[in-house]
Amino acid sequence: MNAVFEAFKTRAEAVSAEVHRFKTREEGLTFILGFLKDAGVSDAPECGAVWAAGTFIDGAAKDDLKVKVPGICFDITQAASAASKVGISQLDWAISATGTLVQDASAVDKRLVSTLPPIHMAVIGTERILADMGSVLEKLRPEQLNYISFITGPSRTADIERVLTIGVHGPERLIIVVVDELQQVTA
Amino acid sequence: MSTTEFKESIATALNNGNLTGALGRFSEAYRISRAKAYEGIDFEVVRDQIEAIKCSASSRFEELAEQFKKNAEARGAKVFRTSDPAQVKQYILDLARSKGVKRVVKSKSMASEEIHLNKALEGAGMEVDETDLGEWIIQLAHQTPSHMVMPAIHMTKEEVATVFSQEVEEGQMPDIPKLVKFARAKLRPKFLQADMGISGANIAVAETGSLVIVTNEGNARLVSTLPKIHVAIVGIEKLVAMVKEIMPILTALPRSATGQLLTSYVSIISGAVPNVDGSPKELHIILMDNHRSDMAKDPMFKPALQCIRCATCLNVCPVFRLVGGHVFGKTYTGGIGTILTAWFDELKKADDIQGLCIQCGACVAVCPGKIDIPGLILELRRRLVVEKGQSMTMKAIFGVVNNRRLFHSMLRMASVTQKPFTSGRFIRHLPLFLSDMTEFRSLPAVAPSPLRDTIKKIVQPKAKEKVAFYAGCLIDFCYPEMGESLVKILNKANIEVIFPDDQTCCGAPARYNGAYETAAGNARDNIKALLEADVKYVVSACPTCTVALKHDFIETFKSLGITDAMAEAEKLSAKAIDFSTLVKKLVDEGRLTFKEGEDLGKITYHDSCHLKRTLKASEEPRELLKKAGHELTEMFECDICCGMAGSYSIKLPEISAPILERKLKNIKETGASKVVMDCPGCVMQIRGGLDKDGAPIHAEHTAESLANRFK
Ligand code: SF4
Ligand code: SF4
């Protein structure tokens, strides 16, 4: 698993994603909350964080989290997402060959939190990293799912003088939180 | 575009230092990033797969389109099939009207540009915004894309800042990160307010009704998520049969287009998803034909539907990097753009632009769709000539070329008078030396005696083994010394070289100008002359001629539906061999041995387009030259065209000259005192250029470099 993780990390970092690995869910959660605070997430206007459903967060005491970091919102709307600094979601699979995250994004909240805020935090279990796109397409099947998203690094453009610039319409930072002890029961 | 306008647009492009500078630097950086992106991937395997997938799909568009429709509709999409661009526009207008759509956001769709959709929507009072940064810039600047992947590559940051200041908000500075932030801030509210999102798709999968959309900026995700209506306009050439077939395409597309392993975002949309307010999304997919199935029915052009729009053929094209995209037209640019324009728009529209292709083949080697772009452009040229006829000058010239006796006697006469006897519209292997186009390179004189005379004076060993020598016009009449060198070398291997006197022009000049009937006449004459002798090989020291003997005769017959001479053409094809490949063989077989201990100094080698890319010989001459005792220093871009390409340097000297200039610069930078190549046409171009330039570098044919090197 370590080799697969390392390969994934190398590829993801090569495309400007930030990768952090934790052993337990608790450690991952602590990191995310710390990050949100440092990023200035609060209940002030335009300072929120939107957190989409997923096994990582579903069982947590959400009210406690809101106390710890005011401004976290679990009710995802377009307006809340557009006004947030950070969007957090759980991804279903990852591809080590390209440093890619993959998600059944049929539910609109998953897309809102990963497209509108300038920072996207993506949570994924270590064992969900597979070798290549072919392996992932066997797990997430277009014949069953209406919207599958592949995300490889933050949003980018080179449309002006071919100069690579990060963060056009999507997030300018992609922070990947990889958790070893995370049982994912999703697709 | 009229021919004058066309010439003017070329002049404008060539005089735009920003453009040629940006494209030149890009083409250099592109080669490196592409190579890096393909590390660990067997490009040939991937493109074989793409070819197979797309070829099979284009053989059954009807079936796949119906299957796609059925599957996508079962999952909540509405699929509209049409062959008519007007109906595409009407469908979207009707839909917009019935839903009260006022604001539209678009992510990149070349199909929508092909049919001028924005104009139609704006005409109906809608606000339409392109959201791909490059597309937005050119929309604001009221221009058209100049590149299929990077639409605004022709603009500098200063120009972008000016456009933003004039069209959106005053005071924008030419600072790229700031300009990008500005675009994000200005387009964000448009996404949030839009009633309809329009996108294209990179792939459409029939078995699942899926669309695959590839972007880096993330705009397609927003376009397909925020507005309640999503319309995707998809050319039917995007269809593939199965989900697993998207993988080779997604392996090649980002690597070839932008040197990425994968783009930031890939979305696979296979049905309607909920809107932000919980209502079901209206997903409309328009499968547009617009002459694509006509193309699929034309066996010659069907492979062009294998294109995945990666724009590699633009990035590696020596002409594109000089003139950029606008010269080519409004939607599709570069070599493949020429072909697509001829079909999706009309053949006539390709009349001028088809002439831009210098036929170097650089694109063929790297096209993920395995499309013979220069080959198809030649076929366009032929069809255009059939449609509107050949010009009087060309007719007169080809009338002469078709009559070997007349042609050769005129050449002989030229050697005496060295005076122009026509207006000088001549071509490689033809009396180009009669042209007065000597601005950027000196031209050779016609030799006092052609090779066909001098060769008879060479005392050759009466050997059992004989090869026939096909000289081609340039060696025969201008550079007989190259032919004499070849004879000398083969004699050392105890081979007698015979010269069939009835050989004539290889037909390449006629073929490359669309005069296929003349080319076929030349082919017939040569086949007869060359098959008469009982030899194992027909050798030529001109790669263009070798390609003619090996491939073009057959292709010309095929194009014209000539069958009676096919078997003989194939027989000749099997015997034809280029000089370096034959000599390398003889060395390997131990029939030629190099003199030992020679130190011949530093040289550099120029790869001739036809030798490297059609005949696939690039190591052979290098190995021979090194073994002979030369020290080989490679020049930058050794395999990029020298700009000669026959009549090209006469029809478009403004493009040929800067291509040559680059070549000369790369040669000079090696510090070598000699540049060697396998093609007399390239020698003519490069020697002439060096002469004008005054550089103390000698250009010669590999045969000359090797003539005295064997024991
Ligand atoms: S023709 Fe080939 S190289 Fe050119 S855009 Fe199409 S696939 Fe790419
Ligand atoms: S053959 Fe050469 S000149 Fe013609 S399109 Fe291809 S790269 Fe350009």
Any descriptors?
heterodimer, A: 187 residues, alpha/beta, Rossmann fold, 6-stranded parallel sheet, 7 helices, 12 strands, globular, B: 711 residues, Glutathione S-transferase Yfyf (Class Pi), Chain A, domain 2, 4-stranded mixed sheet, 33 helices, 18 strands, 11% strand, elongated, binds iron/sulfur cluster
CATH class of chain A: Alpha Beta
Distance between the termini of chain B: 60 Å
Q: Report the total helices of chain B.
A: 33
Number of strands of chain B: 18
Main sheet properties of chain A? 6 strands, parallel
What is the oligomeric state here? heterodimer
Rounded Rg of chain B:
28 Å
Measured as a percent range, the helix fraction of chain B is: 40-55%
Instruction: Supply the helix-strand structural class of chain A.
Output: alpha/beta
Strand order, sheet with most strands of chain A:
1-12-7-4-2-3
- Which structural class is indicated by helix and strand composition of chain B? alpha/beta
Radius of gyration of chain A: 16 Å
The CATH architecture designation of chain A is: 3-Layer(aba) Sandwich
Biggest interface goes to: A-B, 48 and 64 residues
What is the domain tally of chain A? 1
Question: What do you see in this structure?
Answer:
The complex is a heterodimer of chains A (about 190) and B (about 700). Chain A is of the alpha/beta class and about 190 residues long. Chain A has a single domain (about 1-180), classed as NagB/RpiA/CoA transferase-like (Rossmann fold). Helix content of chain A is about 30%, strand content about 25%. Chain A contains seven helices and twelve strands. Chain A has helices spanning about 1-15, 25-40, 55-60, 60-70, 80, 110-115, 135-140; strands at about 20, 50, 70-75, 85-90, 95, 100-105, 120-125, 130, 145-150, 155, 165, 175-180. Chain A has a six-stranded parallel β-sheet with strand order 1-12-7-4-2-3, sandwiched between helices. A four-stranded mixed β-sheet of chain A has the order 8-5-6-9. Chain A has a two-stranded antiparallel sheet with strand order 10-11. The longest helix of chain A is centred in the first third of the chain and has 14 residues, at about 25-40. Chain A is globular, with a radius of gyration of 16 Å. The two termini of chain A are about 20 Å apart. The model of chain A has no long low-confidence stretch (mean pLDDT about 95). Chain B is an alpha/beta fold and about 700 residues long. Chain B has four domains: about 35-155 and about 190-290; about 295-390, no CATH class; about 415-425 and about 435-590, Glutathione S-transferase Yfyf (Class Pi), Chain A, domain 2 (Up-down Bundle); about 600-705, Rossmann fold, CATH 3.40.50. In chain B, the strands form four sheets. Chain B has a six-stranded parallel β-sheet with strand order 1-10-7-4-2-3, sandwiched between helices. A four-stranded mixed β-sheet of chain B has the order 8-5-6-9. In chain B, helix 32 (about 680-695) links the parallel strand 17 and strand 18 (about 700). The longest helix of chain B has 21 residues, at about 15-35. Chain B starts with a helix and ends in a 5-residue tail after the last helix. Chains A and B meet through helix 6, helix 7, strand 9 and strand 10 of A and helix 2, helix 8, helix 10, helix 11 and helix 12 of B. One iron/sulfur cluster binds near residues 335, 362 and 374 of chain B. One iron/sulfur cluster (SF4) binds near residues 319, 359, 362 and 374 of chain B.
